[in-house]
Structure formats: C-alpha cells, structure tokens
Design a protein that fits this description.
This protein is mainly alpha-helical and 114 residues long. The protein has 2 domains: 6-38, no CATH class; 44-106, no CATH class. It is built from 5 helices and 2 strands. The protein has helices at 19-25, 48-60, 69-84, 87-95, 97-106, and strands at residues 6-10, 33-37. The chain has a two-stranded parallel ribbon with strand order 1-2. The longest helix is centred in the C-terminal third of the chain and has 16 residues, at 69-84. The relative contact order is 0.14. Residues 1-21 form the signal peptide. InterPro entries: RNaseH_sf (IPR036397). Keywords: Signal. GO terms for molecular function: nucleic acid binding.
Length: 114
C-alpha cells in the first residue's frame, strides 16, 4: 500500500535474523518502513523460549536414535500436548514478565539469568 507506514521490529538475536526475512526487508527499509531495534538479548524477554526448552528436555527423554520419522513426530506431538495442558507453566511464565523486563533494563539489554 503506497503511502502507508509499516513498522518492522528488528530482533538482533542472530538466530532470528534469517536470510529470507532480511532480504525481504532490506529493499523496503528506506521506503515506508520504520525499523525499530530490539534489545540485544531479546530472548530474555521471550517467554516462549522456555517452552522450547521444556520441549527439548521432554524430547531428550524419548529414545529417538532409531526412531522413524513418524515415531519422532508422534513423540513431538505427545510432548506438545503435555505442555499445552500445563496451564500452570503459562501462568508462571506470564507472571515472570515484569521481573524479566526489570532485569533486562538493569543490565542495559545485556544477558540476565532468564
């Protein structure tokens, strides 16, 4: 849409800077896009990183060295269902946001214990 303004939030966490995304945004950067820089260790504020960590732990308990692709997918879905049903985890992570934000501000966007 010509004339409209879009905001692109740039996460500077290297794992999140994929070539496809940067190649799409680069030509737009000087037109109708405003690029906002995110804190360098933005993963400290992303509570979903904890969910991925829990998934990793759960999958490490599953013997997958000789698993077929279907068996692996079944294990992933089962672990995901278990995590999705744990509403206390979501509540705990949500309630941790104010202290996460304070910790990141205290260290000027550096690493925290989260």
């Amino acid at each position: 849409m010509l004339g409209s303004t879009h905001i692109y939030l740039l996460c500077v966490f290297l794992l999140h800077q994929q070539t496809l995304t940067t190649n799409f945004v680069r030509p737009c950067s000087f037109r109708a896009y405003t690029k906002l820089a995110w804190v360098p260790k933005g993963a400290d504020l992303n509570i979903f990183e904890n969910v991925w960590g829990r998934m990793k732990v759960a999958l490490n308990r599953t013997p997958i060295s000789s698993a077929t692709e279907d068996e692996l997918w079944t294990a992933v879905l089962a672990d995901w269902q278990r995590l999705a049903s744990d509403t206390s985890l979501v509540t705990l992570l949500y309630e941790s946001l104010p202290s996460r934000m304070s910790a990141v501000v205290e260290v000027n966007g550096g690493r925290t214990h989260y």
